[in-house]
Design brief:
6 strands, single chain, 109 residues, 6-stranded antiparallel beta sheet, alpha+beta
């Protein structure tokens, strides 16, 4: 699972903007409770997004979009991104990017 915070530096980042930066369509967003997500076994991957102040929290399971280099660049455009992950195999990472540049963390494609 991956957890990221996208925070606007000069202007706030909205949920719609974060979804667009991930390559998604905000019109396709659906609201679901935590129970619904846990109970929906047909969903192999999900991205949960929530507005928090001037930023957006992303929680991903079953995929790794927010740690891909090109996605980090888009997410951190005019913003800063703090990202961390946990995996049962021990493949854990922490990343920090700002203004479209990964500043700390593994450089990956």
């Amino acid at each position: 699972m991956y957890w990221s915070v996208v925070e606007g530096i000069d202007t706030p980042v909205t949920v719609d903007e974060a979804v667009r930066r991930l390559g998604g369509d905000p019109a396709q967003l659906v609201e679901a409770s935590g129970e619904e997500l846990i109970d929906d076994l047909s969903c192999d991957a999900s991205v949960c997004v929530e507005q928090r102040g001037s930023g957006v929290v992303l929680f991903e399971t079953g995929n790794y979009q927010s740690v891909r280099s090109e996605v980090i660049r888009r997410l951190s455009a005019d913003s800063r991104v703090h990202s961390t992950s946990w995996h049962f195999s021990g493949w854990d990472i922490m990343m920090y990017a700002a203004y479209g540049t990964l500043l700390t963390g593994p450089r990956r494609n």
